[in-house]
């Protein structure tokens, strides 16, 4: 069994019956008291942030995981069908597990699934940067391009994000999948 001294950022723990990824960990040793670890964790199922104090030397349940490359094929109702890139087996993944990332999924996109044990999926991991085309946005005028500001744009997957005023229909954009934020316009 692992102890709190083995904790580091990015490790997945089984905590309070759920799987949590460690976002931040810091060790504190107050004056006359015993040291402790302050941990900030994100629940992998619902995305909520949980904070907890672990005593120094306390045992923790670190989960061994396996990452496998998959390709998103299509949405089937509430499920998303993924294909294993090695064996070509198709696997349905629950929409609840995909969460808010589903608005950025594009058919044919390469993703990673994180497994615990043998067949339990705990996380769907998209590439950090995704290239998507703009399907609809307000036209810009010369005055709009001269001033900084943003406007909403609908992407080919149906997601709506804020983009700079100079972006037009058909432009290919680089999007940060973690924050759903515009990064830059991709040159063709």
Description:
The protein is 5% helix and 53% strand. It has 188 residues and is mostly beta strands. It has 3 domains: 2-60, SH3 type barrels (Roll), CATH 2.30.30; 65-125, OB fold (Dihydrolipoamide Acetyltransferase, E2P) (Beta Barrel); 129-185, Nucleic acid-binding proteins (OB fold (Dihydrolipoamide Acetyltransferase, E2P)). The strands form 4 sheets. It has a 5-stranded antiparallel beta sheet. The chain starts with a strand and ends with a strand. The model has no long low-confidence stretch (mean pLDDT 87).
Total of DSSP H or I helical runs spanning 4+ residues: 2
Major sheet details: 5 strands, antiparallel
**What is the CATH T-level topology of the largest domain?**
OB fold (Dihydrolipoamide Acetyltransferase, E2P)
Q: Return the CATH class of the largest domain.
A: Mainly Beta
Class by alpha and beta content: mainly beta
Order of helices and strands: EEEEEEEEEHEEEHEEEE
Shape: flat
N→C terminal distance = 52 Å
Q: Are there runs of 5+ residues with pLDDT below 50, and where?
A: none
What helical percentage do the residues reach? under 10%
Trace the largest sheet across and list its strands. Answer: 9-8-7-10-11
- State Rg: 21 Å
Assign the CATH architecture of the largest domain: Beta Barrel
Number of domains: 3
Please name the fourth-level CATH homologous superfamily of the largest domain: Nucleic acid-binding proteins
| Total beta strand runs | 16
Mean pLDDT: 87
Q: How much strand? A: over 45%
């Amino acid at each position: 069994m692992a102890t709190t001294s083995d904790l580091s950022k990015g490790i997945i723990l089984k905590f309070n019956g759920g799987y949590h990824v460690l976002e931040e960990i810091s060790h504190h040793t107050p004056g006359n008291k015993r040291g402790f670890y302050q941990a900030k964790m994100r629940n992998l199922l619902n995305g909520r942030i949980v904070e907890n104090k672990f005593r120094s030397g306390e045992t923790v349940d670190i989960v061994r995981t396996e990452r496998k490359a998959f390709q998103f094929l299509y949405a089937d109702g509430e499920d998303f069908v993924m294909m294993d890139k090695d064996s070509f087996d198709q696997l349905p993944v629950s929409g609840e597990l995909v969460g808010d990332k589903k608005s950025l999924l594009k058919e044919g996109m390469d993703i990673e699934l994180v497994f615990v044990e043998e067949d339990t999926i705990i996380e769907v991991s998209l590439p950090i940067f995704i290239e998507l085309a703009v399907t609809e946005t307000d036209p810009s005028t010369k005055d709009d391009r001269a001033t900084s500001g943003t406007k909403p744009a609908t992407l080919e997957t149906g997601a709506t994000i804020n983009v700079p005023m100079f972006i037009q229909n058909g432009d290919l954009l680089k999007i940060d999948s973690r924050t759903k934020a515009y990064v830059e316009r991709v040159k063709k």
